[in-house]
Write a structure and sequence with these properties.
Length: about 700
């Protein structure tokens, strides 16, 4: 028996044997994202490009979960793992069904190019809603949970996750093909690399994708520095370029002169498969002597090893999955639960939850009330049914629901022949005839997203401002002038300033196909909100550092200056209908960790909340403020006192010096803070709660 067919051999041995039977040309052809079949070796055609950011995307019907930034708002590792398990089950089921019919098209494979674990360092970045927010620790923990859920724990990978975009990548979108993201050693180790290291070393992510831009002069898909980092971390999966990124080497970065040189640079620095077209020249580069047979062989072996791990040459425990496993009721219920957890209550004067017994008419107003796009986010799949916010309210409320679109999402009128503001009068009429107004505003993927996908061409998918589009600013002003009790629901993937003070403000992010039900449940109190902001919400874009500045000196909650007074709502903040607070924390220190037994008490109604743990070090190499080092989602009934045990690895309490060396500063005073928000003055003022602190000797 050929070794590559022998299931008793390791995947490594089988891959090497299989590749050894290919010609050099055949090996070269396997490095393209649309790899051809090799019939004599029983190698089926395979397209490496598939997406699964928050549901299997772009290949027909699948369960659509909240966008990644909404999943991050849950602060819940178990939920992320469960969501990812569903995504990979549906991915495998669809792959099985398509393969039976010989359909091996794009978006139908088992290599999911997710999650996006870039740091959302600047709220203008259009793709920020694909990420898990601004904090490297939160991103690491949620990213690891997602990868483990995607890949499973069996002999074979259920699907293969891919950590992207390696490594320093977060806008501007318009410059990404030519931009050099400059980051010093401290920022690299402290902010930009930790999540990638965790996903490679701990979660064993099967794939890593390089970014479009350069980092410190080197194109990320052909970077010796980044390639060596992966080797240092023990990465043994496959590396893929971002799509058409390798052609940027010669066309935009100008680090090479020809496409052949670009292919050689990428391949020599560990890029196994090219999403794009440059690798069609690998064989020519080989003939020209600038790529060796050994380099081609190594890349092909990596790719075949991944396909072996996915069981493409064997029978697996996943072969029975089929279309009856796609978008099941159970999977939709998980999407609904994720949608509930994605919602963050930012303010509430007591109007929420709404009491249907005391209300006869609700006015639902705004361009995102009846919008399916407002549920999606980008890189989305196709749901068989979408529950909009309007529909969720209509289904949940027994009284009269009146509706007005109010305005276009961003244009000055709804009807082409109308005058500017052509729905404002209707919105005010609806408000006047309502007891309570639910004003649904915000963005969708057409206004924030990836270059080329979003329609706001002036910014190539990025935001120019943190305010609502002008049409919506006018709508909010005119509706608020009516004077009725008003709840504003913001649907967006990033920080927005609505510039008004409604009776309540709910941030729903992009809550998934069941999002309207989730929002309605929170509005009427069936569910208590429990989400926390995974990003800081700012007041004014002009007070932020320059968008192209990748220094973390004054960025995110860890390094903000209080004197800037630009924070609207802090990272980690979010209200509930309960009243959960930490009342005590007993801390002990072991060799590798700090162990805490934390007592929480809920003086309000039943709710879930997040126990958040931050540390502040007086080391000269610490971040300016404090940093997240632990979190846990906790559910408490009314009046319940609960003890929660946490083990915080000492590695989460390290600092990084200017040379990029991470270490545990045992001589510096270190304080832990336990609460349901950050230990900053603004969070204390907004929540009325103080964190419990404990000094630890490391």
């Amino acid at each position: 028996m050929e070794i590559y067919k022998d299931r008793t051999k390791s995947f490594e041995e089988r891959a090497k044997d299989l590749v050894s039977r290919m010609t050099v040309l055949e090996r070269c052809e396997q490095l393209k994202f649309g790899a051809p079949a090799i019939e004599r070796l029983s190698v089926e055609a395979y397209n490496w490009w598939n997406e699964g950011l928050h549901g299997v995307a772009r290949a027909g019907v699948a369960t659509m979960f909240p966008q990644a930034i909404g999943l991050a708002a849950s602060f819940d590792e178990e939920l992320l793992k469960t969501v990812a398990e569903v995504i990979s089950i549906e991915c495998r089921a669809k792959y099985n069904e398509y393969s039976k019919r010989g359909d091996r098209d794009i978006y139908k494979g088992l290599t999911l190019w997710s999650p996006n674990i870039n740091i959302f360092r600047d709220p203008r970045w259009g793709r920020g809603h694909e990420t898990y927010g601004e904090d490297p620790y939160l991103t690491s923990r949620l990213g690891c949970a997602f990868v483990k859920g995607i890949q499973g724990e069996g002999k074979y990978l259920r699907a293969a996750a891919c950590a992207k975009h390696f490594a320093v990548h977060s806008g501007p979108e318009a410059l990404r093909h030519e931009f050099d993201a400059v980051a010093d050693p401290k920022d690299m180790e402290e902010t930009y690399l930790p999540a990638f290291e965790a996903l490679v070393k701990e979660a064993r992510a099967e794939g890593v994708m390089g970014a479009y831009n350069r980092t410190n002069g080197e194109p990320c898909c052909g970077s010796e520095y980044l390639h060596n980092k992966l080797i240092e971390w023990g990465f043994d999966g496959y590396f893929v370029s971002d799509c058409w990124a390798i052609q940027d080497f010669h066309m935009n970065h100008h680090v090479t002169a020809t496409a052949e040189e670009s292919a050689a640079l990428a391949l020599k620095n560990g890029c196994d498969v090219n999403c794009g077209s440059t690798y069609i020249l690998v064989y020519k580069a080989y003939q020209d002597g600038i790529i060796s047979e050994e380099e081609i062989t190594a890349a092909a072996e990596h790719l075949m090893r991944t396909r072996m791990r996915l069981g493409m040459f064997d029978e697996t425990e996943y072969d029975g999955l089929n279309y009856s496993d796609v978008e099941t009721r159970e999977h939709l219920d998980i999407s609904l639960e994720a949608g509930r957890n994605a919602c963050v209550l930012l303010s509430n004067d007591g109007i929420l939850p709404l009491d249907p017994e005391k209300i006869k008419t609700i006015g639902v107003i705004g361009p995102n009330a009846q919008s399916q796009k407002a549920l999606m986010g980008n890189y989305h799949g196709t749901a068989s049914r979408y529950v909009t916010i309007l529909e969720g309210i209509q289904d949940a409320f027994p009284g009269r629901v009146m509706f007005s679109e109010g305005c276009h999402l961003f244009r000055d009128k709804v009807e082409g022949l109308g005058l500017p503001g052509d729905r404002i009068a209707e919105a005010q009429i609806v408000a006047e005839h309502s007891d309570v107004v639910i004003l649904c505003v915000g963005l969708d993927e057409t206004l924030e997203g990836e270059q080329g996908d979003a329609s706001n061409t002036d910014a190539s998918g990025d935001k120019l401002t943190l305010t609502l589009p002008e049409s919506q600013r006018l709508l909010v002003k005119k509706v608020m002038e009516v004077g009725k009790p008003t709840v504003i629901v913001v649907v967006s993937g990033s920080s927005l300033n609505v510039e008004s003070e409604p009776n309540a403000l709910l941030q729903a992010f992009y809550p998934g196909s069941e999002g309207g039900r989730a929002v309605a449940e929170i509005l009427f109190g069936k569910t208590s909100p429990s989400g926390k902001l995974p990003v800081t919400f700012y007041k004014d874009v002009h007070k932020l550092p320059d968008f192209t500045d990748y220094s973390m000196r004054y960025r995110t909650y860890r390094n903000e200056r209080a004197e800037d007074d630009n924070v609207l709502f802090p990272f980690g903040y979010g209200l509930s209908y309960g009243d959960v607070r930490v009342v005590a924390a007993d801390v002990s220190v072991s060799e590798d960790s700090v162990n805490a037994e934390v007592t929480l008490e809920n003086k309000g109604r039943e709710t879930s909340d997040v126990l958040e743990v931050y540390f502040r070090s007086e080391s000269k190499d610490a971040v300016r403020n404090h940093a997240l080092c632990g979190f846990k989602k906790v559910r408490l009934s009314e009046g319940e006192i609960k003890k929660v045990s946490l083990s915080i690895p000492k590695s989460a309490l390290t600092v990084v010096n200017e040379e990029g060396v991470r270490y545990l500063d045992k001589n510096a005073k270190t304080t832990l803070y336990f609460g349901t928000s950050q230990p900053d003055e603004q969070s204390e003022r907004l929540t009325g709660k103080k964190c419990v602190s404990a000094e630890v000797k490391l």
